[in-house]
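Session log. Operator J.P. requested a structure for one protein chain; no other inputs attached. Running the standard single-chain path with C-alpha cell output.
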Amino acid sequence: MNIALALAVLASAFWLIRTSNEARSLFVQLERARTEEQELEVQHDRLKVERRTAATPLVVEDMVRTRLKMSTTNPAVTHYVIDGVAPVAKPAAEGGTP
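Structure written below.
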C-alpha cells in the first residue's frame, strides 16, 4: 500500500512539474504575442499616417511629375477631340480651332 501511495505521489509530482512548465511556456508565448501585437499596432498607425501624407495634393503632384513623367497641359500639346471626328492636329496656339 505504501508503494502504491509513493508511486501516486511521484506521478502527481511529475504531472505538477510538467503542468507548471507548460504554463510558463504558454505565458511566454502570450507575452511574445502581446509584444508583437503592440509592434503591429505601431506599424499600422505609422502606415495610416503615411497614407494620409501620400494623399495630399502636393505629394500626388510630385509623384505624377517624377514617376509618371507627366506635365501640365498647355495649348502646344493639347489635342481637341470632337465626338465622331478625328482629333484636330493643329494646336490652338498656331491658329487651330478648339
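Operator note: The longest helix spans residues 2-54.
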